[in-house]
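Need tokens for this chain, all 449 residues.
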Amino acid sequence: MAAPIGIVLLGLLALPRGAQPSCFCQVTGYLDDCTCDVETIDAFNNYKLFPRLNELLQSDYFRYYKVNLQKPCPFWEDNSHCGMRDCAVQPCPSDEIPDGIRAGSYKYSEEANSLAEECEEAKRLGAVDDSLSKETRQAVLQWAQHDDSSDSFCEADDIHSPDAEYVDLLLNPERYTGYKGPDAWKIWNSIYEENCFKPQNVKRPLASGRGHTFYKWLKGLCVEKRAFYRLISGLHASINIHLSARYLLQDSWSEQKWGPNVTEFQQRFDEVLTNGEGPRRLKNLYFLYLIELRALSKVLPFFERPGFQLYTGNGSQDAEMKNLLLEILHLAKSFPLHFDENSFFAGNKKAAAKLKEEFRLHFKNISKIMDCVGCFKCRLWGKLQTQGLGTALKILFSENLIEKIPESGPSYGFQLTRQEIVALFNAFGRVSTSVKELENFRKLLQNRR
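Here are the structure tokens for all 449 residues:
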């Protein structure tokens, strides 16, 4: 997609009249590689799931995310940190973090909390105290192995690093920052050109006339590589919707006014202005929605266990939020037209395993690129959303392990850290919000006619 992570200040420019109604004319009906249609997703998300999910994400467990924004870029020399006010991230003082979260129990379930108290100092395999019970040692070893296993799709931050800080996501919302130019463009260019299985001789539709022919190469890819590209394009579209929906409309000494910028939205998604690519970007957003929704429906057994809790130290609120979380997951499971992930990595087992590993490493590389983003607020939300999508992919490709989760007691084979849980639901919250914002932009565009 041509626009950088931060958006360009074009809100006052007039657009051609013919462009005004054409953002959504092709964003309808069935999605490629799916049996689902746009209208079913809109109705399900906007009137059923979004209100409940939005309430969940306001809670203490999900609003605090620990992140290291000081990690150096691993791919190129990067001294281009954004100095603008709205690029900054305000970390939380430690005394504002709920006690249960600050205590740092890694797995956030009752059995994990009790084990953590027994072996507080056992941070590595060799440090497990021989005096612990056999069952306790086995659980610690298996959790440690899990944390270092090859099922991760993301380069996760070391939350024990002195540079890692808690951030209140509600006080640092994803919105327009003014971050733009060559440094911002370099991020997306690196993602698309080097990590999305695109042939080097195929150029993205950045110049006039390419949009209608660009997707021909995509049709020739296997379904897994095609899906990979569409997930990244959908994530990019979602980010651009957020920035267009929470645009800086007024900036004076007394106040800042944020709101939807229809002109900016059209610059990114109008069929005419994007040479036909804008509606494809929006359809890729819906594809991303289906993938993450499918992951939520699959991971229900992990959260249903009586021993799992959203632990913050506030017992009544923790129980209330777990009930709401389970309501959301059951709602996700009830969706009638889920994406069928069984089409992924089918066929020859050896070739499928090789492709899956390539898929995983490409996505892990993209998660590393987030440490090259010069705008700290963009970096925060980029890291969270890539970790959330990576967690969703991990869930989809761990179905056999999830099916073996016992109804009670520790889940040895499949685990999610608190970081992964917070990222998973907040990332889906961003995509769900994007779908909801599209409804608002449709109305605004209709009023312009």
